[in-house]
Fold:
Amino acid sequence: MKQPKNKQTRLRVHESTLLMPFLLLKMGGMSRQSVKQLLSHRQVSVNGEIQTRFDLQLNQGDEIVIDSQSAKQELRHPKLKIIYEDEALIVCEKKRGLLTVPTIATSKETTCFSILKHYVRQANPRARIYVVHRLDRETSGLLVFAKTPELQHYMRDYWKELVTKRTYIAVAEGVIDQQEGQIKTWFTEDKRNAVVYSSPVDDGGQLAITNYRVIKTNEKYSLVELHLETGRTNQIRVHLASIGHPVLGDRKYGSGNPSPIDRLALHARIVEFIHPLSEQIVHFETPVPREFLKLFH
Structure:
């Protein structure tokens, strides 16, 4: 017996507008709440990409598809949230304490990879997921995963060229006197002890460059925005420690002072890159964690 096809509505945009008013106008008297449910259930796509933002800007010629029969599977996990998904990529936000991928020692532990693998296989048992870059366990923020090995290899090989912006937020110990600056050192990684050493002169290590701007300070801490020019292991943690202001809660490179927020105060806030298929710049960002801001109230 043939399975019934999902009922889909296809719409074409004829003039610039926002997604919510467009759907209200075109969907036969649906309420705002009903439209929001379509979006939250991942039933609306624009030019082939699933969208959940009601205020998305639409342009002339865009194609809207509404899958009104069966809702897309929604990821519900306390440690991981999908920010964006299309046929090529998933951009997600992870909470602190969650590994990006398993290691030999943590092979049975829940990770971003295992959560997303289960998620994509609910729709297609043969679907797979591939990590593009990683975050430390105790760092929160944005991660990018690919849906094919070819895209994974392409994005890894050309990551430096594809990424147009990577911004982190950190709470550093002490008051950083210079409001903005650049930290440029050479890293040598001791893989046996899983520690990175930093040298102010070229000692044959890998060049690491971090630009920073101090946003707020008080008598104990500095809230810092950091932009990476390179993507070395533990780069921000090592660099802030190298100028005498380690990331709050950093047990590996920090001063050892207790953290009042009981976590590493580092968050991957913004990632912006050239999409490997559309070749358009896509931008994703998350708010500064509330526990960071509370330290400065």
User: Anything to note?
Assistant: The longest strand covers residues 206-217.
